[in-house]
Amino acid sequence: MTSSSRRSRSLVLGSLVALVVGACGPAATSPGAGASAEPTAVTGAACQAGATEVKFWTSHTPPDTDSLTNIVNAFNAANPDICVKMTIVPGGETDIVKLVTAIRGGVAPDVYEADRFTVPQRAAEKVLAELPASSAALKDQHLEFAWAETQYQGKTYALPFDTDARALWYNKDLITAAGEDPAQLDISKGAPTIELVTRIADAINKKDASGNYEVMGWMPGGPGPGGNPGAFDQGWHYTWGFVHGGSFADLATCKVTPTDPGVVAGYQFMYDWQKAHDPQAVARWVSTNFPPNAPAQQFPFWTQKLGMTISGDWQIANAAKYGGGHDYAFTFIPVANAGDTPATWAGGWSMALIPGSKVPEQAVKFIEYITGPEGQKVYVKETTHLPTLKALLADASLYDEQHKVFLDLLPSAHSRPPLAVGGIYWDALTQAQGSVELNTKTPQEALAEVQTTVQPRLDEVGC
Amino acid sequence: MTAAAPAAPRRSSRFALGKVERRNLRWGLLFISPWLIGFLIFGILPILYTFYLSLTRYSGLADPDFIGVQNYGRMVGDPLFWKAASVTLYYTLLAVPLGVVVSMVLAMAMNQKVREVTLYRAIFYLPSILPVFAISFVFVVFLNPGYGLVNWLLTAAGLPSPNWLGDPNYTVISLVMIAQLGAGQWALVFLAGLRGIPTELYESAEIDGAGAWRKFKSITLPLMTPVILYDIIIGLSFGLQVFTSAYILTGGGSRGAAGPDNSLLTFVYYVYKQAFQFGAMGYAATLSVVLFIASLVLAGAVFRWARGWVFYAGEEA
What we know:
The structure holds 2 protein chains of 2 kinds. Helix content of chain A is about 40%, strand content about 15%. By secondary structure, chain A is α/β, with parallel strands linked by helices. Chain A folds into 2 domains: about 50-165 and about 350-410, 3-Layer(aba) Sandwich (D-Maltodextrin-Binding Protein, domain 2), CATH 3.40.190.10; about 165-345 and about 420-460, Periplasmic binding protein-like II (D-Maltodextrin-Binding Protein, domain 2, 3-Layer(aba) Sandwich). In chain A, the strands form 5 sheets. A 5-stranded mixed β-sheet of chain A has the order 2-1-3-15-6. A 5-stranded mixed β-sheet of chain A has the order 8-9-12-7-13. In chain A, helix 17 runs antiparallel to helix 18 (about 445-460). Chain A starts with a helix and ends with a helix. Chain B contains 13 helices and 2 strands, in the order H-E-E-H-H-H-H-H-H-H-H-H-H-H-H. Chain B has helices at about 20-55, 70-75, 80-110, 115-125, 130-140, 150-155, 170-180, 185-195, 200-205, 210-240, 245-250, 265-275, 280-305, and strands at about 55, 65. Chain B has a two-stranded antiparallel ribbon. In chain B, helix 3 (about 80-110) crosses helix 8, helix 3 (about 80-110) runs antiparallel to helix 10 (about 210-240) and helix 10 (about 210-240) runs antiparallel to helix 13. The longest helix of chain B has about 35 residues, at about 20-55. Chain B is flat and about 75 Å long. The chains are: A alpha/beta, B mainly alpha. Chains A and B meet through helix 1, helix 3, helix 4, helix 11 and helix 17 of A and helix 4, helix 5 and helix 8 of B.
């Protein structure tokens, strides 16, 4: 055998080995391979032997989960015969893939923290189980809008856990450094106009030699983390629709109304702002400074890359943790014209029972605890969210001066329509927001598409 | 006068088998029965069940409600269906031909008679053994407009640096770039084809004074056409089903859209969103059926088109 043929043979053999390795590679490293089928619980280590296990899943991340852990541990200590095991799973407001596949696979949790405005849709999809009469009887204890979001066809599918309100947060240090007076935005002066905020923001803007934004004055809408469609923070479609007097649904006729003039005006504002600031330059800044799944401390508002942002009451707690000692304040969300009534909106999450739970009694006991005064007090205090329990709204011990301002916004806050297509509608509005902010579609075109996509689904499931 | 030919023994049909053939068939079926049963249960049955689900309203959890062809009617008026179809076709039209070219070039590089060829082969092949999702995560960083490696290189070369994942004009191109990292695997198939070409053909061509290009055009390319066809068919199938990289580049679409302006909403991504994010498993099944049929039609069209240019050395002209 010649040396060259030996070499050829070794090459072929080497290639074959590589081929085999290649064929095996993806399978050996596929998601979940080598790992436990279920993520590890973050609570329950101190439970008594023989306690009934209740599996609780949340898609929240720190710092919210730190508070949830405290509540779960307190429940376990007070109920030694029950052991709630809390697990942080992937997911989001409208993304419950992990939950759905777990239900199909027979490894579902007993309790799930669901974004409240999606509860009617999840109930229609049979993802959530109806709660017993003891839970339904708690109706009068909760804020009306929050309760309405937990209902589907007259039945209760979750209990409200928290709510919130939105405002314009601003960094006084950056505004001062830009030569503007932050006192112009003082909350005592009422809601600032969009024009004023844009002028101050443009003074903060800084660009590098290539024309890329280094610091942005504010980001009223999107894109979202990584440059994906959606809001950068809380500058959602709902925010600007409500600010412009829009109505997103007509519950009496069971119709979604994305082409309502106020909603269109909100989208038009986002379209015009992006056009004035170059959509691609804005997207590039977001992609660079706020990648997907970035931890809270990398939020550009804390890293001094952003002067103002539409955000919520939870940033009071975050400012203390991640704000780096800078001087932050907040005021009403800007209005279109001086003297307009300011607008905000309230969201919030809920605790739901999953169908097929083998321990429904214990699960409901936990749901009623965490959404009751014991749970909500801890969560409100530690995360600076707001309670849905009316009794806690008057508990002065829960709110400092800043937190109280958000509490005062709550009575006039809007909320998302409680529809059985809540998540689908949100996603369609988000897609439309993305297109409008890229200036690839006009608001009318994008919102007409939302109507075409969502209304047939609503017709199927009803109100 | 011609003598009548003796009558051939008649068979009841053209597929009638003799005793030995029947016995062989029985044994053959028995031997492949594990695979056959698996194929029926995990291949055919899900396809048939998908056809059934496409005629239902089904969230994936409650019982399916039969609604006839309503889902098909809805699909025609669904703008996202058309968007997903156009994104997928655009991606496939870019990725498949480019994949053929890249694989061929890699294979020819791997076929060079140089001492370090084994090292080159390993280097060219290495990216294709990495899982797509891992490569995609790495590319999210590589393609970052501010600190990504790709734009750093482009800027160093004095070229414009696009926002790869934030500008809808570049998102599909990013996806095509990622797909090319798997070309090493196909390059091995091409390499096998190249090494199967008789060297006498090249020697004869050289005697006749043919240059490198002429040899490639008149010998290599025609004799490689069966491999190219194979690559196109498999590439078409993979291209129409692209999902993982689009899913990861868009952060899982958990915030509503699949990339800027839905520019990464590939067909299977849309099936996934309908099935698992929107709770519309029945409609997702409808989309899957359409993809299945479209794949068959496209593959058939490619085979038909290939009759004009694929050269099989063993066939009569």
